[in-house]
Amino acid sequence: MTTAFLDQEWHEFLKTVATHPDLVWDLHSYKRPQVERRLQGFLLREGYSSLPQLAAALASQPDLARRMKNFVTVHVSEFFRDRSYWDRLDAVVAQAPWGHQARVWSAGCSWGAEPATVWLMQRKAGRRCEIWATDTDRPVLEEAQTLTFPKETWTAQLEPYRPFVKIYPNGRWTLEESARQDIHFAVQDLLEAHAYPQQFDLVLCRHVLIYFSQEAKQQVLSTLVDSLKPGGYLFIGAAEMLLEARDMGLQAVSPSLFQKST
């Protein structure tokens, strides 16, 4: 396999990142080609010519370390991403015996579109849910915590949810006030996380697993499944495969949606 960086430089850089006080980041758990592509872009943007040069700069520039982690960590998200998948989830949730209160975990929530989507879907259906939204990137999570979104994120598919939002004159918009009582945010690294003692009816981890190595993916999946109540659902991204679902006590319900055995 062709790599962007020499092996020796790559492994030395991984040691630097793993021991950096503002990072302590184990990049071995991520797929190398994807991390390399992001790092190449970061080097170009910041004006560095090599990994050793970047490593030397990281030693004296804490802000550079934070910028690098934010750049390398993928934060692609959108409201009702892969809409047909959300529609199938909504149909399943409507039949679930959760009553009008469900516990939901949005793992790797990025800038907040995913937990906001769950909240809007449940609110429109007349259901309430407590949502725990977690991500490893603190600045991105602080942005998500505002539950306020740029004008360009409002699309036609959000129009049915207009009664549950406030749109400002400048086009920015936010969820109604009750969402701030329902959605809770916390910094969390999935690679270091343990199963929640209070289990969830629904766990969402979409377009996150594809960035992990196979070993790290298994570790994260184990945490997600252990955090589900028996009969609860795991919702993953449209491009993600879960061939080991049965071995983990999961049954496929529809594409990207799995139910934990009771």
Structure at a glance:
This protein has 262 residues and is an alpha/beta fold. Helix content is 37%, strand content 20%.
Radius of gyration: 20 Å
Through-space gap between termini: 43 Å
Number of strands: 10
For the sheet with most strands, the description reads: 7 strands, mixed
| Fraction of residues in H or I helices | 25-40%
Order of helices and strands: HHHHHEHEHEEEHEEHEEE
Structural class: alpha/beta
Unreliably modeled segments: none
Overall pLDDT metric: 89
Give me the side-by-side strand order of the main sheet: 6-2-1-7-8-10-9
The best one-word shape is globular
Number of helices: 9
Q: Please report which band the strand proportion falls in: under 5%, 5-15%, 15-25%, 25-35%, 35-45% or over 45%.
A: 15-25%
What can you tell me about this protein's structure?
The chain is an alpha/beta fold and 262 residues long. Helix content is 37%, strand content 20%. The chain contains 9 helices and 10 strands. The protein has helices spanning 7-19, 32-46, 51-58, 62-72, 83-95, 113-124, 138-145, 179-182, 214-226, and strands at 101-107, 128-135, 148-149, 165-167, 173-175, 183-187, 200-205, 228-236, 250-254, 257-260. A 7-stranded mixed beta sheet has the order 6-2-1-7-8-10-9. A 3-stranded antiparallel beta sheet has the order 3-5-4. Strand 4 (165-167) and strand 5 (173-175) form a beta hairpin. The radius of gyration is 20 Å and the shape is globular. 28% of the residues are buried.
